[in-house]
Fold this sequence. Notes:
Blueprint: H1 12-41, E1 47-51, E2 54-61, H2 73-94, H3 101-121, E3 124-129, H4 139-159
Antiparallel strand pairs: 1-2, 2-3
Helix pairs in contact: 1-3, 2-3, 3-4
Amino acid sequence: MAEPVRQRPLGPxxxxxxxxxxVMAGVVAADQLSKRLVRSSITPGEEHNLLPGIDLVNTRNRxxxxxxxxxSHTGVTxxxxxxxxxxxxxxxxxxTRPLLWLPTGLLLGGALGNVxxxxxxxxxxxxxxxxxxxxxFNLADVSITVxxxxxxxxxERARQPxx
Length: 163
C-alpha cells in the first residue's frame, strides 16, 4: 500500500500571494457581475433611485477611475500597466508585511475588472451616481480607491518607529 503524500504548508510569502489572488478574483467576480446586471437591466441614460442621493445609471467611461484622464485609450492602458508593475514589484519585496496582501489584491482586482471592460467594450461600465456632479463609478473604482488608501496607511504604519 502506498504511503500518503504529505503536503508541506505554504510559507508566508506563498500564503500572501495566494491571499492576493483570492481577493483579486473576488473583486473581479463582483465587479463583472454587477456590471453585467446593470447593462442588462438599466437602459443607458436612465436613472434608478437606489437610496436618497444615490442613483443607479448605465454609462461608459473611457478614462481611469471616476472618469479621470478621459480620451487616450493607449495612454490610460500604459498608465495602468506601469502602476501595476510598480505595485507588484513593491509587493514582491514586502509580501510578508502584515495585511499588505489586502490592498494589493484590491488594486489588482479593480484594475483587472476595468481592463476586462476596456478589452470587451472599449470603455468601462459605470453605474453608481452620487449627487453634486461626482462622476459615476463602479465596484472596481471603489476597490482601487480603498486599495490605494489602505496601501498608503500600511506603508505609513511600516515607517513609524515601534514603541
